[in-house]
Amino acid sequence: MTDEKLINHMAALARLKFSDEERKNFGGQFSRILEYVEKIKSVDVGNVTPLVHTYEQDNIFRPDENTPSLPREQVLANAPAKENGFFKVPRVIE
After folding, report:
1. What residues form DSSP beta bridges with 86?
2. What values do phi and psi take at 60, rounded to 5?
């Protein structure tokens, strides 16, 4: 695939439209990106353990515990609109 065809193909996949000047600039950039990808492909990673994160940390979430809910009056205290003990919001479905 020629550079121009490849650029047009990539632009179509990404749903992008380039002017002639942008296409010319992108051509050089895209060639350098592909060269870099080829360089990365040449690195032997056979003995490297895959990572999920770059640092080890087991669980950063708080424990899941049941706690009492806030009283309804406190929850609705700052509501801009309320009706019969519920938040009142604009209708979005007709």
Report:
1. 83
2. -100, 5
**What are the DSSP calls for the chain, one per residue?**
--HHHHHHHHHHHTT----HHHHHHHHHHHHHHHHHHHHHHTS--TTPPP-SSSS--S--SPP----PPPPHHHHHTT-SSEETTEE-------
Going from the C-alpha of 2 to that of each of 6, 79, 83, 90, the distances in angstroms are 6, 61, 65, 55
Place of tokens 């950039």: 29
The per-residue pLDDT for range 31-55, each reduced to its tens digit, is 888 889 999 999 988 888 888 777 7
Comparing 86 with 6, the larger pLDDT belongs to 86
- Model pTM above 0.90: no
What residue has token string 């009056």? 73
| Residue 27: Cβ within 10 Å count | 15
